[in-house]
Amino acid sequence: MTSTPPRRFPLSLSQVVARDGGSEVLRPQRPVDDAARERSRSMQPAGVGLDSHSVRERLVERLVREGLRDERVIAALRAVPRHRFVDSALVQQAYEDTSLPIGLGQTISKPSVVARMLALMLAPHAATARLRVLEIGTGCGYQAALIACFSRSVVSIERLKPLHDKARANLLAIDAGDVRLVYGDGRLGHAPNAPYDAIIAAAGGDDVPAPWLEQLAVGGRLVAPSGDGSGAGQVLVVVDRLADGRLQRSVHEAVRFVPLKSGLA
Ligand code: SAH
C-alpha cells in the first residue's frame, strides 16, 4: 500500500503552453479563465454538482473491488470530477465505467482502463517519487488531470487543435495544477522536457514510436496500446528502461484505443 496524500483541487495552474509552428507562446490567461468559468457554470445541470462526490466514490469503490490497489490512482480518481470533462448531455454517464465521445471521433477512455494503465505506469515507482510524465493524446484532458494529482510535472500532447483547446479550458476550470499542454504530433514525443519517468499513450499505432523510447528516463516506464501483430487488434505494451539503459518489453491484455495518427489537424 502507498501513502501519497491526495492532491486537492483547486491548485494553481502554472503553465499552459501551446506550441504553434514550433515556437512556444504563453496564452493570455484572463479570457481563458473567464471562458472556462462561464463554461463550468453552464455545464452543471441541477444535482450533478451536489451528487458527484458520492457518485464518484461509488465508481472508485467498484474499481477497487475489481482489483485497483494503487493509492495514488485511487486518490486521483476521487479528486478529479470526470463530469466536468464531458459534454453536458453526457454528464449522467460520467461515473459509469464506460468510454464517452468527446468530439471529432475521439473518446474519453473507460475509467477502469485509465485506472489500469495508470497503475501499471506507476508500479515501478515509489509512492514518494516525484515523476515527470509525458502523455500522448490529451483528448479532453481528464487523464492529464489525474496524472497531475500525483506527479511533479505533466506534459500532454494533442494533434487535434479543437481538443487541445477544449482540454485547456477544462483543466483551467478545475485548476488542475502543473500541466503543460502541447499542440503537436505526439509520435515525436516532446524532447524539450525529456527524459520522462513515465510515458503513457491514449492512442495506439502499429508499434511504439522510437522517440518515446529515446525520451524514457533510466528507471522509467512506458505504457501504450500497440498493434498485436495481426494488423487487426491492439494489446497493452509496457517498456521499462533498466538501470543499465537496456529496454525491457512486456505485453499485456488486449485493448481497443483510437488510432495514433501522424501530423496535425
Ligand atoms: N487521455 C484522453 C483520451 C483521448 S483519446 C482523455 O482523457 O480524454 C486519444 C487522443 O489521442 C485523441 O484525442 C486523439 O486526437 C489523440 N491522438 C491520436 N494520435 C495522436 C498523435 N499522433 N499525437 C497527439 N495526439 C494524438
From TrEMBL:
Its EC number is 2.1.1.77. The keyword Cytoplasm applies. Coiled coil: none annotated. It is found in: Cytoplasm. It holds the Pfam family PCMT. Keywords: Cytoplasm, Methyltransferase, S-adenosyl-L-methionine, Transferase. One of its GO terms (biological process) is methylation. It is an enzyme of class 2 (transferase). GO terms for molecular function: protein-L-isoaspartate (D-aspartate) O-methyltransferase activity. Residues 30-41 have a biased composition (Basic and acidic residues). Its main location: cytoplasm. Transmembrane segments: none annotated. Residues 20-48 are annotated as: Disordered. GO terms for cellular component: cytoplasm. Belongs to the methyltransferase superfamily. L-isoaspartyl/D-aspartyl protein methyltransferase family. This is Protein-L-isoaspartate O-methyltransferase. It comes from Rivibacter subsaxonicus.
